[in-house]
What we know:
Elements: E1 5-11, E2 18-22, E3 28-32, E4 45-53, E5 60-68, H1 77-90, E6 107-117, E7 121-126, E8 145-153, H2 164-173, H3 179-190, H4 196-206, H5 212-230, H6 235-242, H7 246-257
Helix pairs in contact: 3-4, 5-6, 6-7
Amino acid sequence: MRGDVYVGVVPAEPGLTNAEHINASGDHVKGFNTVQSEMQEGLVIFDIVFYVRMRDGLSQIIINVEAQKDEPSGYDILNRAVFYVSRLVSSQKERDFTGKNFNDLKRVYSIWICMNMDECIWDYVHLTDDSILGDHKWKGKLDLLNIVLLGIPNKLPKRGEQYELHRLLGALFSNQLTSNERIDILENEYHIAAEMEFREEMDVMCNLSEGIYEQGRTEGKAEVAFNLRAMGMDDSEIAQALNVDVEIVKGWFENESV
């Protein structure tokens, strides 16, 4: 389970992030919930969630990656990021630790990538301890909640140490570069070998008019839709739960039956 990457199938709603599973040994274990088990209006789903094992081979952190085609205008993105990172911390109870063993909490990083920004942006939001009175040092970890906000402009940033990450992400996902231009940057600047399969996938990315992130979220909702139908929900209920038009839901099922 720790090696799984969950893409667009884990609900962020309280009470829905975790699910109980039975492993090969017949034991009941807790894991991320990839099936929404009840009707919820405006269901929110994490884009990508996965565990990463640290260099010591023992400790783990939880990574959440959220992609936006631009900075949302209907709400403040930082507020949503705080909600997501908080859910990933609180959902660890009875999944990653039990009872009052709060020292077993894992660090969580919620990374938000916003495309089509006016400039390269990189912000790191985290907890700090401002001592107001006294010298007492409270026990605990200040590094449990971490939010990273990345803004990627349409125009590929110039080469430079401070722009390495933004230039890499821009090369991967910008809709203003051809497949060959992307591969040239990846091979010559980042020494990433572009095998034939990788080149074919890069061609597909170039043809996604709404960007690779929008496609990933759509596919994730489609997967959830099939799970919900298997649980007895009709098309209109599924559309309401996933906040999409009912015709979109019907299209997913029609394409699957072809």
